[in-house]
Amino acid sequence: MATAGNFKIFIVDDDPSSRLSSAFCFTGPEYEVHEFDSGEACLAALEIQPDIVLLDIEMPGVDGVQTCKALRDAGLAAAQVIFVSVHNDLETRLGAYDAGGNDYIVKPVLPGELGPKIAVARQVLEQQRRLEARVEQASTIAFSAMSSAAELGIVLEFLRASYACDSMDAVHEVMAEALGHFSVQYIAQLRCGETTACYSHQGESTELEKSILERVSLMDRIFQFHDRMVINYPNVTLLVFGLPLDDETRLGRLRDNLAMLAEGADARLLSLRSHVILSRQAAGIDHVLKGLSQALVAIEKNQDVVRLNALCVMDGFIGELERAFVHLGLSESQEASLSELARSTAARVGGVLSDGKSVTDDLHRVGQSLRQLHSGD
């Protein structure tokens, strides 16, 4: 079919004067006219794909009806075929209709009669073109929507898989799989705390690639130059190559999807970094708990020894004090007072030592609470 605003016209008639007369109706710049003196010549030129065919029925060899049937069999269903004939009977008109004709005009062909027929044919063709344009637009939109959904599915699958990643290498592995679906080449730098690693679609990154990543990591969040694009996040620098510059729609989708991919990787690396910090803190707490338990055991043993020694000292002191009474010349009441004072003092010392045991028990309970928090029970 011709492009919008342009119509390819076939005038098929074995009479030169009839062809000339009909051609006067197609003098505008929107018409591309081709004349044929036989059905055979017309069918040999179907690669031109006519829009309007002015077709004489009575021709030697392949007549107009046969020509129209062959034209339809060749797949030219949209072409508007206007039959021309000297006959005006019903049988001839039915034959033209059965062959696939769209209109019929009786010779001699007059411009005033042919003009309205051409106008109707053009109107039908223009409606068909508008419909084809809408169908093509709808198909483009549908294809774009399906492509967009498929690409979004790749990102969602990456996000799902990244949740199970427990290292930078694992994050890169699922990231590389997603980038492979997008058909782009890349180099990437992943960062997790103090650890940095560089990757390439070709395998281990070269020193030159590492130096490039160091440079581009200082650029904006998203920066495109030619068919390359840099995407920067705190824990991710992604440089992709081979962007589809000839497809602006796909390029826009790719830019958005790659940004979501990099952001997802950045979030997972941040989570891994937090996990590492928490693991270190947990290990430190565990070490402190072990040290606290060992210290409490040592304190309890020391307290038992101190308590026993203190009691022995106090008992020895009371015994020596009572034996010294015979040399001090004290009265019985004085001796009794001193003895009572010594024993009450010994009792208070014992109470102080027992208070130390209570503190140790409190420390044991604190340690037990810390163990429960550490284990998550």
* Cα gyration radius (Å): 50 Å
Give the integer mean of the pLDDT values: 83
Q: How would you sum up the global shape?
A: rod-shaped
Percent range for β-strand residues: 15-25%
**Given the structure, what is the number of helices?**
9
Unreliable stretches = none
Number of strands: 11
Helix-and-strand structural type: alpha/beta
Description:
This protein has 377 residues and is of the alpha/beta class. The chain is 62% helix and 16% strand. It contains 9 helices and 11 strands. It has helices at 16-23, 39-44, 64-73, 90-99, 111-162, 168-181, 207-216, 248-328, 332-375; strands at residues 7-12, 31-36, 52-56, 80-85, 103-106, 185-192, 195-200, 203-204, 222-225, 228-233, 236-241. The strands form 2 sheets. It has a 6-stranded antiparallel beta sheet with strand order 8-7-6-11-10-9, sandwiched between helices. It has a 5-stranded parallel beta sheet with strand order 2-1-3-4-5, with helices on both faces. Strand 10 and strand 11 form a beta hairpin. Helix 5 packs antiparallel against helix 6 (168-181) and helix 5 (111-162) packs parallel to helix 8. The longest helix is centred in the C-terminal third of the chain and has 81 residues, at 248-328. It is rod-shaped, with a radius of gyration of 50 Å. It starts with 6 loop residues before the first strand and ends with a helix.
